[in-house]
Amino acid sequence: MKDEYPTTERSRLRRKHDRGSHQRADVFAVLDASPLSHVGYTINGAPYVTPTLHWRDNDRIYWHGSAASRFLRKAEDMPVCLTCSIMDGYVLARSAFNHSINYRSAMVFGMAQIIEDSDEKAEALRGFTESFFPGRWNSLRPMTEQELKATSVLWMDIEEATAKVRNAPPGDGEEADVPVWAGILPLRTVFADAEPAPELPGTIVLPEALGELLCSGRLR
Amino acid sequence: MKDEYPTTERSRLRRKHDRGSHQRADVFAVLDASPLSHVGYTINGAPYVTPTLHWRDNDRIYWHGSAASRFLRKAEDMPVCLTCSIMDGYVLARSAFNHSINYRSAMVFGMAQIIEDSDEKAEALRGFTESFFPGRWNSLRPMTEQELKATSVLWMDIEEATAKVRNAPPGDGEEADVPVWAGILPLRTVFADAEPAPELPGTIVLPEALGELLCSGRLR
Q1: pLDDT of B64
Q2: Looking at the predicted complex, does its ipTM rise above 0.85?
Q3: Three-state SS at B174
Q4: Which domains are seen in chain A, by residue range?
Q5: How many Å lie between the alpha carbon of B143 and the closest alpha carbon of chain A?
Q6: N or C terminus: which one in chain B shows less Cβ crowding within 10 Å?
Q7: Of B64, B141, B214, which to mutate for an interface test with A (greatest number of A Cβ within 10 Å)?
Protein backbone atom coordinates (compact mmCIF):
# COMPACT_ATOMS: atom_id res chain seq x y z
CA MET A 1 0.00 0.00 0.00
CA LYS A 2 1.40 3.35 -0.98
CA ASP A 3 1.60 6.20 1.50
CA GLU A 4 0.31 8.75 -0.91
CA TYR A 5 -2.75 8.94 -3.15
CA PRO A 6 -2.34 9.63 -6.85
CA THR A 7 -3.39 13.04 -8.12
CA THR A 8 -5.29 14.28 -11.12
CA GLU A 9 -6.67 17.68 -11.91
CA ARG A 10 -9.60 17.41 -9.51
CA SER A 11 -7.51 16.83 -6.42
CA ARG A 12 -4.85 19.30 -7.52
CA LEU A 13 -7.51 22.01 -7.55
CA ARG A 14 -7.48 21.74 -3.85
CA ARG A 15 -3.75 21.97 -3.17
CA LYS A 16 -3.47 25.44 -4.52
CA HIS A 17 -2.99 27.27 -1.29
CA ASP A 18 -0.38 24.89 0.01
CA ARG A 19 -2.13 23.45 3.01
CA GLY A 20 -2.90 20.28 1.07
CA SER A 21 -1.57 16.78 1.50
CA HIS A 22 -2.16 13.58 -0.43
CA GLN A 23 -0.67 11.47 2.34
CA ARG A 24 -2.88 8.56 3.31
CA ALA A 25 -2.17 9.08 7.01
CA ASP A 26 -3.27 12.72 6.83
CA VAL A 27 -6.49 11.82 5.04
CA PHE A 28 -7.28 9.00 7.49
CA ALA A 29 -6.64 11.27 10.48
CA VAL A 30 -9.42 13.62 9.39
CA LEU A 31 -11.87 10.92 8.33
CA ASP A 32 -11.43 9.17 11.65
CA ALA A 33 -11.76 12.32 13.75
CA SER A 34 -15.34 13.15 12.74
CA PRO A 35 -18.08 10.81 11.56
CA LEU A 36 -20.09 13.52 9.77
CA SER A 37 -19.41 13.90 6.10
CA HIS A 38 -21.05 15.45 3.08
CA VAL A 39 -21.35 13.31 -0.02
CA GLY A 40 -21.75 14.94 -3.41
CA TYR A 41 -23.52 13.19 -6.27
CA THR A 42 -24.33 14.48 -9.73
CA ILE A 43 -27.98 14.11 -10.63
CA ASN A 44 -29.10 15.19 -14.08
CA GLY A 45 -25.89 17.16 -14.39
CA ALA A 46 -26.44 19.12 -11.19
CA PRO A 47 -24.82 18.68 -7.78
CA TYR A 48 -26.58 17.18 -4.79
CA VAL A 49 -24.83 17.25 -1.39
CA THR A 50 -26.20 15.14 1.40
CA PRO A 51 -24.94 14.80 4.97
CA THR A 52 -24.28 11.33 6.27
CA LEU A 53 -22.15 9.35 8.68
CA HIS A 54 -19.16 7.52 7.31
CA TRP A 55 -16.87 4.81 8.59
CA ARG A 56 -13.75 3.33 7.17
CA ASP A 57 -12.00 0.05 6.66
CA ASN A 58 -8.56 0.95 5.39
CA ASP A 59 -9.04 2.52 1.92
CA ARG A 60 -12.71 1.61 1.76
CA ILE A 61 -15.17 4.22 3.02
CA TYR A 62 -18.71 3.25 3.85
CA TRP A 63 -21.60 5.57 4.34
CA HIS A 64 -25.21 5.34 5.23
CA GLY A 65 -27.73 5.65 2.45
CA SER A 66 -30.28 7.45 4.59
CA ALA A 67 -32.85 9.44 2.65
CA ALA A 68 -32.89 9.99 -1.08
CA SER A 69 -32.90 6.28 -1.57
CA ARG A 70 -34.85 6.48 -4.79
CA PHE A 71 -31.93 8.10 -6.44
CA LEU A 72 -29.33 6.21 -4.45
CA ARG A 73 -30.51 3.08 -6.22
CA LYS A 74 -29.11 4.71 -9.35
CA ALA A 75 -25.87 5.74 -7.65
CA GLU A 76 -24.02 2.53 -8.45
CA ASP A 77 -20.78 3.29 -10.28
CA MET A 78 -21.43 7.01 -10.09
CA PRO A 79 -18.49 9.26 -9.23
CA VAL A 80 -18.81 10.72 -5.74
CA CYS A 81 -16.90 13.19 -3.64
CA LEU A 82 -17.07 12.72 0.13
CA THR A 83 -15.84 15.63 2.20
CA CYS A 84 -15.35 15.63 5.96
CA SER A 85 -14.55 18.90 7.71
CA ILE A 86 -13.97 19.97 11.28
CA MET A 87 -13.90 23.60 12.41
CA ASP A 88 -11.24 24.03 15.09
CA GLY A 89 -11.52 27.76 15.62
CA TYR A 90 -11.91 31.24 14.25
CA VAL A 91 -8.71 33.08 13.44
CA LEU A 92 -9.03 36.82 13.99
CA ALA A 93 -6.41 38.99 12.33
CA ARG A 94 -5.75 42.71 12.02
CA SER A 95 -7.05 42.85 8.47
CA ALA A 96 -10.23 41.28 7.12
CA PHE A 97 -8.11 39.52 4.49
CA ASN A 98 -6.11 37.57 7.08
CA HIS A 99 -9.13 36.33 8.98
CA SER A 100 -9.38 32.60 8.61
CA ILE A 101 -10.43 29.47 10.38
CA ASN A 102 -8.41 26.66 11.82
CA TYR A 103 -9.83 23.46 10.44
CA ARG A 104 -9.19 19.94 9.28
CA SER A 105 -10.74 18.71 6.08
CA ALA A 106 -10.50 15.63 3.87
CA MET A 107 -11.89 15.36 0.37
CA VAL A 108 -12.13 11.88 -1.08
CA PHE A 109 -12.98 10.81 -4.62
CA GLY A 110 -14.18 7.44 -5.87
CA MET A 111 -17.00 5.51 -7.47
CA ALA A 112 -20.08 4.78 -5.36
CA GLN A 113 -20.98 1.15 -4.87
CA ILE A 114 -24.08 -0.23 -3.20
CA ILE A 115 -24.03 -3.34 -1.05
CA GLU A 116 -26.71 -5.70 -2.29
CA ASP A 117 -25.77 -8.89 -0.48
CA SER A 118 -27.56 -9.25 2.88
CA ASP A 119 -24.65 -10.79 4.75
CA GLU A 120 -22.23 -8.20 3.47
CA LYS A 121 -24.62 -5.45 4.44
CA ALA A 122 -25.11 -6.84 7.92
CA GLU A 123 -21.35 -7.08 8.34
CA ALA A 124 -20.91 -3.47 7.18
CA LEU A 125 -23.57 -2.28 9.64
CA ARG A 126 -21.86 -4.19 12.40
CA GLY A 127 -18.64 -2.36 11.48
CA PHE A 128 -20.54 0.93 11.51
CA THR A 129 -21.97 0.41 14.99
CA GLU A 130 -18.70 -0.93 16.37
CA SER A 131 -16.73 2.00 14.92
CA PHE A 132 -18.77 4.27 17.17
CA PHE A 133 -19.46 2.04 20.15
CA PRO A 134 -17.09 -0.93 20.44
CA GLY A 135 -18.83 -3.96 21.92
CA ARG A 136 -22.34 -2.59 21.46
CA TRP A 137 -23.43 -4.70 18.47
CA ASN A 138 -23.71 -7.94 20.42
CA SER A 139 -25.81 -6.32 23.12
CA LEU A 140 -28.48 -5.15 20.67
CA ARG A 141 -31.67 -6.84 19.61
CA PRO A 142 -30.60 -8.63 16.39
CA MET A 143 -31.51 -7.06 13.07
CA THR A 144 -34.50 -8.39 11.22
CA GLU A 145 -34.47 -9.26 7.54
CA GLN A 146 -36.89 -6.40 6.90
CA GLU A 147 -34.69 -3.84 8.68
CA LEU A 148 -31.72 -4.97 6.67
CA LYS A 149 -33.67 -4.47 3.44
CA ALA A 150 -34.75 -0.99 4.49
CA THR A 151 -31.16 0.16 5.00
CA SER A 152 -28.78 1.23 2.25
CA VAL A 153 -25.05 1.02 2.68
CA LEU A 154 -22.80 2.56 0.09
CA TRP A 155 -19.05 2.40 -0.21
CA MET A 156 -16.17 3.48 -2.33
CA ASP A 157 -12.53 2.67 -2.56
CA ILE A 158 -10.53 5.86 -2.31
CA GLU A 159 -9.12 6.71 -5.72
CA GLU A 160 -7.85 10.16 -4.87
CA ALA A 161 -7.87 12.20 -1.73
CA THR A 162 -6.55 15.36 -0.21
CA ALA A 163 -6.36 16.54 3.36
CA LYS A 164 -6.04 20.16 4.37
CA VAL A 165 -5.27 21.46 7.80
CA ARG A 166 -4.85 24.94 9.20
CA ASN A 167 -3.67 25.08 12.76
CA ALA A 168 -1.91 28.36 13.40
CA PRO A 169 -2.29 31.86 14.84
CA PRO A 170 -3.28 34.72 12.49
CA GLY A 171 -0.81 35.13 9.63
CA ASP A 172 -0.28 38.85 9.99
CA GLY A 173 2.00 39.08 13.01
CA GLU A 174 3.95 41.78 11.19
CA GLU A 175 0.94 44.07 11.56
CA ALA A 176 0.86 43.85 15.34
CA ASP A 177 0.85 47.65 15.54
CA VAL A 178 -2.79 47.72 14.39
CA PRO A 179 -4.63 48.27 17.68
CA VAL A 180 -7.17 45.45 17.48
CA TRP A 181 -7.45 42.14 19.28
CA ALA A 182 -6.05 39.25 17.24
CA GLY A 183 -5.87 35.58 18.03
CA ILE A 184 -7.82 32.36 17.96
CA LEU A 185 -11.30 31.60 19.27
CA PRO A 186 -10.97 27.80 19.52
CA LEU A 187 -13.98 25.58 18.85
CA ARG A 188 -14.50 22.13 20.27
CA THR A 189 -17.25 19.59 19.71
CA VAL A 190 -17.87 17.82 22.98
CA PHE A 191 -20.42 15.55 24.57
CA ALA A 192 -22.88 16.83 27.12
CA ASP A 193 -24.31 14.50 29.77
CA ALA A 194 -26.00 11.37 28.45
CA GLU A 195 -29.81 11.48 28.39
CA PRO A 196 -31.38 8.07 29.06
CA ALA A 197 -34.43 7.23 26.95
CA PRO A 198 -37.67 8.06 28.81
CA GLU A 199 -38.75 4.43 29.13
CA LEU A 200 -35.29 3.05 30.03
CA PRO A 201 -35.57 0.85 33.14
CA GLY A 202 -33.76 2.47 36.07
CA THR A 203 -31.72 -0.70 36.51
CA ILE A 204 -29.84 -0.13 33.25
CA VAL A 205 -26.95 2.23 33.80
CA LEU A 206 -24.69 3.87 31.22
CA PRO A 207 -22.09 1.31 30.13
CA GLU A 208 -18.55 2.13 31.16
CA ALA A 209 -17.36 2.30 27.54
CA LEU A 210 -19.91 5.03 26.76
CA GLY A 211 -18.96 6.94 29.87
CA GLU A 212 -15.34 6.83 28.73
CA LEU A 213 -16.30 8.06 25.27
CA LEU A 214 -18.10 11.06 26.76
CA CYS A 215 -14.95 12.06 28.62
CA SER A 216 -12.45 11.17 25.92
CA GLY A 217 -12.52 14.30 23.80
CA ARG A 218 -13.09 12.05 20.79
CA LEU A 219 -16.32 11.70 18.82
CA ARG A 220 -15.91 7.94 18.47
CA MET B 1 -41.95 37.01 0.18
CA LYS B 2 -43.45 33.56 0.48
CA ASP B 3 -42.97 31.48 3.58
CA GLU B 4 -42.23 28.32 1.70
CA TYR B 5 -39.78 27.46 -1.09
CA PRO B 6 -41.06 25.82 -4.26
CA THR B 7 -40.22 22.17 -4.78
CA THR B 8 -39.06 20.12 -7.72
CA GLU B 9 -37.80 16.60 -7.90
CA ARG B 10 -34.38 17.41 -6.45
CA SER B 11 -35.67 18.84 -3.20
CA ARG B 12 -38.45 16.26 -2.93
CA LEU B 13 -35.79 13.55 -2.90
CA ARG B 14 -34.92 14.77 0.51
CA ARG B 15 -38.36 14.86 2.10
CA LYS B 16 -38.86 11.17 1.82
CA HIS B 17 -38.49 10.27 5.45
CA ASP B 18 -40.82 13.01 6.65
CA ARG B 19 -38.43 15.11 8.67
CA GLY B 20 -38.25 17.63 5.84
CA SER B 21 -39.55 21.16 5.61
CA HIS B 22 -39.55 23.71 2.83
CA GLN B 23 -40.40 26.53 5.21
CA ARG B 24 -38.12 29.52 4.82
CA ALA B 25 -37.90 30.02 8.59
CA ASP B 26 -36.76 26.43 9.12
CA VAL B 27 -34.10 26.71 6.44
CA PHE B 28 -32.84 30.04 7.79
CA ALA B 29 -32.65 28.68 11.34
CA VAL B 30 -30.16 26.02 10.28
CA LEU B 31 -28.12 28.27 7.99
CA ASP B 32 -27.81 30.85 10.74
CA ALA B 33 -26.87 28.36 13.45
CA SER B 34 -23.61 27.18 11.87
CA PRO B 35 -21.32 29.03 9.47
CA LEU B 36 -19.72 25.88 8.04
CA SER B 37 -21.26 24.56 4.86
CA HIS B 38 -20.34 22.20 2.06
CA VAL B 39 -20.86 23.44 -1.46
CA GLY B 40 -21.23 20.98 -4.29
CA TYR B 41 -20.27 21.83 -7.85
CA THR B 42 -20.29 19.64 -10.93
CA ILE B 43 -16.96 19.65 -12.75
CA ASN B 44 -16.66 17.67 -15.95
CA GLY B 45 -19.79 15.79 -14.95
CA ALA B 46 -18.41 14.73 -11.56
CA PRO B 47 -19.18 16.10 -8.11
CA TYR B 48 -16.80 18.28 -6.15
CA VAL B 49 -17.69 19.17 -2.54
CA THR B 50 -15.76 21.89 -0.82
CA PRO B 51 -16.12 23.21 2.73
CA THR B 52 -16.57 26.91 3.18
CA LEU B 53 -18.12 29.53 5.42
CA HIS B 54 -21.41 31.05 4.37
CA TRP B 55 -23.40 34.07 5.40
CA ARG B 56 -26.81 35.23 4.43
CA ASP B 57 -28.77 38.32 3.52
CA ASN B 58 -32.37 37.23 3.38
CA ASP B 59 -32.68 34.77 0.45
CA ARG B 60 -29.20 35.46 -0.81
CA ILE B 61 -26.42 33.23 0.45
CA TYR B 62 -22.81 34.26 0.13
CA TRP B 63 -19.80 32.05 0.51
CA HIS B 64 -16.11 32.39 0.41
CA GLY B 65 -14.31 31.30 -2.73
CA SER B 66 -11.26 30.07 -0.82
CA ALA B 67 -9.18 27.52 -2.70
CA ALA B 68 -10.02 25.99 -6.06
CA SER B 69 -10.22 29.45 -7.52
CA ARG B 70 -9.08 28.36 -10.94
CA PHE B 71 -12.26 26.42 -11.34
CA LEU B 72 -14.40 28.87 -9.38
CA ARG B 73 -13.79 31.37 -12.15
CA LYS B 74 -15.84 28.99 -14.30
CA ALA B 75 -18.55 28.55 -11.66
CA GLU B 76 -20.63 31.52 -12.82
CA ASP B 77 -24.18 30.41 -13.56
CA MET B 78 -23.41 26.84 -12.55
CA PRO B 79 -25.98 25.00 -10.45
CA VAL B 80 -24.78 24.51 -6.90
CA CYS B 81 -26.05 22.74 -3.80
CA LEU B 82 -25.01 24.20 -0.46
CA THR B 83 -25.59 21.97 2.55
CA CYS B 84 -25.17 22.99 6.17
CA SER B 85 -25.41 20.33 8.87
CA ILE B 86 -25.07 20.25 12.62
CA MET B 87 -24.75 17.06 14.66
CA ASP B 88 -26.67 17.44 17.91
CA GLY B 89 -26.15 13.97 19.33
CA TYR B 90 -25.97 10.24 18.88
CA VAL B 91 -29.22 8.37 19.37
CA LEU B 92 -28.64 4.91 20.80
CA ALA B 93 -31.50 2.47 20.45
CA ARG B 94 -32.13 -1.17 21.31
CA SER B 95 -31.71 -2.29 17.71
CA ALA B 96 -29.01 -1.23 15.26
CA PHE B 97 -31.75 -0.17 12.86
CA ASN B 98 -33.13 2.45 15.23
CA HIS B 99 -29.77 4.05 15.96
CA SER B 100 -29.74 7.53 14.57
CA ILE B 101 -28.41 10.99 15.13
CA ASN B 102 -30.11 14.14 16.24
CA TYR B 103 -29.19 16.81 13.76
CA ARG B 104 -30.20 19.93 11.89
CA SER B 105 -29.49 20.21 8.21
CA ALA B 106 -30.37 22.60 5.39
CA MET B 107 -29.88 21.89 1.71
CA VAL B 108 -30.10 24.84 -0.62
CA PHE B 109 -30.17 24.92 -4.41
CA GLY B 110 -29.42 27.79 -6.75
CA MET B 111 -27.11 29.12 -9.45
CA ALA B 112 -23.66 30.30 -8.40
CA GLN B 113 -22.78 33.90 -9.12
CA ILE B 114 -19.42 35.57 -8.67
CA ILE B 115 -19.06 39.13 -7.47
CA GLU B 116 -16.84 41.00 -9.92
CA ASP B 117 -17.41 44.58 -8.83
CA SER B 118 -14.89 45.77 -6.23
CA ASP B 119 -17.30 47.84 -4.18
CA GLU B 120 -19.88 45.09 -4.11
CA LYS B 121 -17.24 42.60 -3.06
CA ALA B 122 -15.95 44.86 -0.29
CA GLU B 123 -19.51 45.32 0.94
CA ALA B 124 -20.09 41.54 0.94
CA LEU B 125 -16.89 40.96 2.90
CA ARG B 126 -17.95 43.60 5.39
CA GLY B 127 -21.22 41.71 5.77
CA PHE B 128 -19.26 38.46 6.23
CA THR B 129 -17.07 39.85 8.99
CA GLU B 130 -19.94 41.62 10.71
CA SER B 131 -22.11 38.47 10.61
CA PHE B 132 -19.51 36.81 12.83
CA PHE B 133 -18.20 39.72 14.85
CA PRO B 134 -20.54 42.74 14.91
CA GLY B 135 -18.59 45.98 15.06
CA ARG B 136 -15.24 44.44 14.15
CA TRP B 137 -14.98 45.64 10.55
CA ASN B 138 -14.35 49.28 11.43
CA SER B 139 -11.61 48.36 13.89
CA LEU B 140 -9.56 46.50 11.26
CA ARG B 141 -6.78 47.75 9.06
CA PRO B 142 -8.65 48.64 5.83
CA MET B 143 -8.53 46.22 2.91
CA THR B 144 -6.12 46.92 0.12
CA GLU B 145 -7.07 46.77 -3.54
CA GLN B 146 -4.77 43.77 -3.95
CA GLU B 147 -6.40 41.86 -1.08
CA LEU B 148 -9.79 42.52 -2.55
CA LYS B 149 -8.64 41.14 -5.89
CA ALA B 150 -7.24 38.02 -4.25
CA THR B 151 -10.57 37.14 -2.61
CA SER B 152 -13.50 35.47 -4.34
CA VAL B 153 -17.02 35.90 -3.08
CA LEU B 154 -19.78 33.78 -4.55
CA TRP B 155 -23.48 33.99 -3.97
CA MET B 156 -26.76 32.47 -4.98
CA ASP B 157 -30.38 33.33 -4.54
CA ILE B 158 -32.14 30.38 -2.98
CA GLU B 159 -34.32 28.71 -5.60
CA GLU B 160 -35.22 25.65 -3.60
CA ALA B 161 -34.37 24.51 -0.12
CA THR B 162 -35.19 21.91 2.46
CA ALA B 163 -34.48 21.71 6.15
CA LYS B 164 -34.42 18.49 8.11
CA VAL B 165 -34.29 18.19 11.86
CA ARG B 166 -34.26 15.22 14.18
CA ASN B 167 -34.53 16.06 17.84
CA ALA B 168 -35.97 13.12 19.73
CA PRO B 169 -35.16 10.12 21.89
CA PRO B 170 -34.66 6.73 20.22
CA GLY B 171 -37.72 5.66 18.24
CA ASP B 172 -38.02 2.19 19.68
CA GLY B 173 -39.51 2.83 23.12
CA GLU B 174 -41.77 -0.18 22.60
CA GLU B 175 -38.68 -2.39 22.82
CA ALA B 176 -37.70 -1.17 26.27
CA ASP B 177 -37.51 -4.79 27.46
CA VAL B 178 -34.26 -5.29 25.54
CA PRO B 179 -31.67 -5.01 28.32
CA VAL B 180 -29.35 -2.45 26.77
CA TRP B 181 -28.73 1.22 27.52
CA ALA B 182 -30.68 3.51 25.18
CA GLY B 183 -30.77 7.26 25.00
CA ILE B 184 -29.01 10.28 23.61
CA LEU B 185 -25.36 11.25 23.79
CA PRO B 186 -25.73 14.98 23.11
CA LEU B 187 -23.05 16.84 21.16
CA ARG B 188 -22.31 20.54 21.46
CA THR B 189 -19.87 22.74 19.61
CA VAL B 190 -18.52 25.28 22.06
CA PHE B 191 -15.74 27.82 22.32
CA ALA B 192 -12.69 27.18 24.43
CA ASP B 193 -10.75 30.07 25.96
CA ALA B 194 -9.54 32.69 23.49
CA GLU B 195 -5.86 32.44 22.55
CA PRO B 196 -4.28 35.85 21.89
CA ALA B 197 -1.86 36.02 18.96
CA PRO B 198 1.77 35.59 20.14
CA GLU B 199 2.75 39.14 19.22
CA LEU B 200 -0.43 40.82 20.53
CA PRO B 201 0.51 43.75 22.79
CA GLY B 202 -0.48 43.04 26.38
CA THR B 203 -2.46 46.29 26.46
CA ILE B 204 -5.04 44.92 24.02
CA VAL B 205 -7.64 42.87 25.86
CA LEU B 206 -10.38 40.70 24.42
CA PRO B 207 -13.26 42.96 23.35
CA GLU B 208 -16.41 42.55 25.39
CA ALA B 209 -18.44 41.48 22.34
CA LEU B 210 -16.07 38.56 21.70
CA GLY B 211 -16.18 37.56 25.35
CA GLU B 212 -19.95 37.48 25.14
CA LEU B 213 -19.82 35.37 21.98
CA LEU B 214 -17.61 32.80 23.76
CA CYS B 215 -20.19 32.44 26.52
CA SER B 216 -23.30 32.66 24.35
CA GLY B 217 -23.62 29.08 23.18
CA ARG B 218 -23.87 30.44 19.64
CA LEU B 219 -21.25 30.16 16.90
CA ARG B 220 -21.82 33.69 15.69
Answers
A1: 87
A2: yes
A3: helix
A4: 9-87+102-170 (2.30.110.10)
A5: 7
A6: N
A7: B141
